[in-house]
Design a protein that fits this description.
Layout: H1 3-11, H2 14-46, H3 58-86, H4 92-95, H5 98-114, E1 117-118, H6 123-149, H7 156-183, E2 189-190, H8 194-217, H9 222-250
Helix pairs in contact: 1-2, 3-5, 3-7, 3-8, 3-9, 5-8, 6-7, 8-9
Length: about 250
């Protein structure tokens, strides 16, 4: 098997590799070089549909969907606010409008609804794990806040570095939250019920859709259009996951 084929096999979600490892190798070999681009596209699509991955129970599927909700919420929020704060794509009045505040609130509320809730016996252990994982990005963010509030006269390159450090810290926090939700044992948390998870996903999708439409229609700036399309695509992925859960339950 070629190096490219080995890489493609590794790109499959682990649930597929653990269940059908040999079959996947055979599928990649049969695809050949000509079929690899199409196969790679199909694998990328699998990562957006965790509800249909092989699983031993619906609880495990819902935990995976909750992890996707965290990923999408983080990606959508970071994308939207990067466009709002780092570009002039959206007028300042609109960027701080009540509508975008409502969209952010809906996105965050839906994120909270979709999160697994730690069981009492696991609260301390999970809290320690979370603190250990986000300690570095929180320290970076705190350092940025101190530098900004001292209002020091610094060269432009330092200002750029400070802004970069702030967004790096936000991205690192988001990544560690995703990692923690994905790694947590099912016996350590109460996975959201189907009703709560569905409500959380719909609320998140609605909030992201509102933010994406605002970026897309704010003024035609390329950065706003690209950011809007990206956020709308994430909202569509969340909405599609709700349908995936419904289809899995009926099969």
């Amino acid at each position: 098997m070629s190096v490219a084929a080995r890489v493609l096999v590794r790109l499959y979600p682990r649930a597929f590799r653990e269940r059908w490892g040999a079959e996947l190798v055979g599928e990649v070999d049969r695809a050949g070089w000509r079929g690899m681009p199409q196969l790679a596209w199909a694998i990328a699509g699998m990562w957006l549909h965790p509800a249909i991955w092989p699983a031993d129970s619906m609880v495990e599927r819902r935990r995976r969907v909750a992890a996707l909700a965290v990923v999408v919420t983080a990606a959508g929020w970071l994308t939207a606010h990067a466009v709002l704060e780092l570009t002039g794509a959206v007028p300042r009045a609109l960027a701080h409008s009540w509508f975008l505040t409502v969209c952010d609130t809906m996105t965050f509320f839906g994120f909270l609804l979709a999160l697994p809730v730690p069981r009492l016996r696991s609260v301390v252990r999970l809290a320690v794990l979370a603190v250990r994982r986000i300690a570095l990005p929180v320290a970076i963010g705190a350092a940025v806040v101190v530098v900004v509030h001292r209002d020091l006269a610094v060269p432009a390159v330092v200002k750029i570095a400070v802004v970069g450090a702030w967004w790096l810290a936000l991205t690192m926090v988001a990544g560690q939250v995703v990692r923690t939700v994905a790694d947590v044992d099912l016996d350590a948390v109460a996975v959201p019920s189907p009703q709560r998870l569905r409500l959380g996903l719909w609320t998140t999708a609605a909030g992201l859709a509102g933010s994406g439409l605002t970026l897309l229609t704010a003024g035609g700036d390329p950065a706003g259009v690209l950011g809007g399309v990206t956020v709308l695509a994430l909202a569509a992925a969340v909405n599609g996951t709700v349908h995936d859960l419904a289809e899995v339950r009926t099969t």
